[in-house]
């Protein structure tokens, strides 16, 4: 099963979702098409399993980051730098895959709901850490952290997905995102 998922990730990354057939996946995995169908009923089922794996991996990495930051007692700037760098590294491994899984794959409602819940949990997790930093404005922190998580996810994914179009060097990109987050997290909240 792991070999099939790993092969599917490579096939989708190389060929896209539409051309990422079960035959190509089976060949890449070194299994017969019959063996593939013993584990997965369709290409869609494989893609859904990859997306569920991505959701779980992202949540796990986020919890590891928070635990590391609590133990190491990094400054806010260092913590954000580690977060942005880690997300960028994660997205750089298979930059097209997440786009393919989220934008091209038909996602069942239960997986869509799991994705939304993982976003809410990520915001709560980041808020739990950022409460430890007195310089971070505390009002509406979970909503603020939802914006932080979405911003880091979107920006790092976009940067990693187009490595040939890098307008700015990687280190500069990380510094710019961290600067933006620091300003956002420490500014006075505006309520209109």
TrEMBL record:
Gene3D superfamilies: Tetracycline Repressor, domain 2 (1.10.357.10). It comes from the Bacteria. GO terms for molecular function: DNA-binding transcription factor activity; transcription cis-regulatory region binding. Pfam families: TetR_C_15, TetR_N. Residues 21-40 bind DNA. PROSITE patterns: HTH_TETR_1 (PS01081), HTH_TETR_2 (PS50977). Keywords: DNA-binding. Signal peptide: none annotated. Residues 1-58 form the HTH tetR-type domain. PANTHER family: HTH-TYPE TRANSCRIPTIONAL REGULATOR RUTR (PTHR30055), HTH-TYPE TRANSCRIPTIONAL REGULATOR UIDR (PTHR30055:SF223). This is Regulatory protein TetR. It comes from Oleidesulfovibrio alaskensis (strain ATCC BAA-1058 / DSM 17464 / G20).
